[in-house]
Amino acid sequence: MASKLMPVYLDCNATSPMEPAVQDAVLRFMAEEYGNAGSRTHEYGNIAKQAVQRARDQVAAALAVERDEVIFTSGATESNNLAILGMAPFGEQHERRHIITTALEHKAVLEPIEALRNRGFHVTVLPSEPGGYITPDSLKAALRADTLLVSVMHVNNETGVEQPINEFCGVLADHPAYFHVDAAQGFGKHNSPLRHHRVDLISISAHKIYAPKGVGALITRRRGYDRPPLVPLTFGGGQERGLRPGTLPVPLIVGLGLAADLATKHGSARQQTCAAFRERVLRGIAPLGPQCNGDPERVLPHVLNLAIPGLDAEAFMVATKELIAVSNGSACTSQSYQPSHVLKAMGLSEERMQSSLRFSWCHMTPDVDWDEVVKAVERVR
Q1: Which of 126, 178, 245, 249 is most exposed, with minimal Cβ within 10 Å?
Q2: pTM of this structure
Q3: 332 catalytic per annotation
Q4: Based on the domain organization, do 214 and 313 belong to the same domain?
């Protein structure tokens, strides 16, 4: 029996396909080099330890940090929680209980910050501009003497809008607040702002850069000789400098390291491929009169968030499900069918939010027959 032809996958912001070379490396360390990196008495453990160290170096090189500033985690959600909740005891001890974040953040940032609010911390949520970005002036106005932490995402998962991280670093240049950047969507695609020495903490996730799910890292950049004053959230074993105990998932870490290395080497070419694909998307769906959400000058080339006038997003996805796979928001909250808090923060109307879709692709995405997509949509509109 012939296999069913799958639609073209256009939901890479939810999770990405695995790079073939990364897949090969992960499978090898699952099937052949399966030692525990913590085993010191035999060659299996030594090979695993060396593989982890190489991956740590690859991630560190991508972000211009030292190898011991890379803490492996299960992904960006855990990294965000460790960066935010792990900072709380220091803030309480030093009477610095003010946190700044934005209305555009992922729930993996907003929810741990809300947990700290319930512990007595004061939280300032910076408003979004209509283009889906935060202004440096709003950050400057919100800073206080007791500000402990500023947590701002690098690239929005729904709109693809990049925040002005370099400008935020300038605002924070003479302030002691720790600067955390959730870079789940930007790492491996535009690393330059993340290399700024003023960014103290960076959360990354492997499955957004063509590597396996279940692994990521928290970058803990030192200020001189001082590490960010984090405390662990879990205990037992002492791995990852005591901040994230547990047996290291060597195959997944190997995949993350190789993916980071490939992104560093091929990032420019990948961006050009994605930009060309974006132009084909916009030309292809032009007959539907799409309205783009987010400042086009700030959107990375692998994402489009747009509304199709006169058509509910759910109807679009049903009409085109045999042709393309897209989403109407964050995969982490899509089961709730609630209006996007990101689009709401940007001031979009209820009608436009209900019509909005996210298209996200990568350098491995095949071409789409956009004429067929348009025909399918016009049959239901």
Answers
A1: 245
A2: 0.95
A3: yes
A4: no
